[in-house]
Amino acid sequence: EVEVKNAFVDEKYPIAGKENDPCLPCRYETVRFSAGKQKMDGETALKFVRSRNAAGEEGTDLAREVRQQLVIEAIKNELIKHPLKILLLKEVVLESIETDMTRDSLAEISGMALRARENLVLNSLPEEFLRHPPISPKYDRQYVFIPKDGNWERVKAWILSSL
């Protein structure tokens, strides 16, 4: 269950495999999310967190970040309610990542995360601190965020106050 904070519609959600379709409108589907608690399967959750073409505030990268955190929070809550699902998730994760960490180290980190589960805090940096300048050689032609006032100190202070 995910608590959708803001309803939104994305009329240009890309359809996998249709990226090169000569019919431009055929490349996209419309996805809609209403505000409120919703039970999401994996495919729906991915559309929720990946959507980037909604009108208004929900079309921003920062809104996507918040939606991603909502889904992570929902997964965490589900795992806390049903600890046996952690074993299933463990197998999926181990099949999906490559690491040089030993199983003992992974078990220790997992134990630490389990013990800290009630103290986890998810935050999103408020948009009021950031702006994204035009894409230019100055930023290697990347889409970036920089502090609105040109100084990272306010951002650092906000992060420290959120701990």
What can be said about the biggest beta sheet? Answer: 2 strands, antiparallel
Helix content: 40-55%
Oligomer: single chain
- Strands of the widest sheet, in order across it, are 1-4
Query: Please, how many helices?
Result: 5
- Gross morphology is globular
Unreliable segments of 5+ consecutive residues: none
Order of helix and strand elements from N to C terminus? EEEEHHHHEEH
Strand element count: 6
Q: How large is the share of residues in beta strands? A: 5-15%
**Arithmetic mean pLDDT:** 88
Please state the structural category. Answer: alpha+beta
Separation of the first and last Cα atoms: 26 Å
- Rg on CA atoms, Å: 19 Å
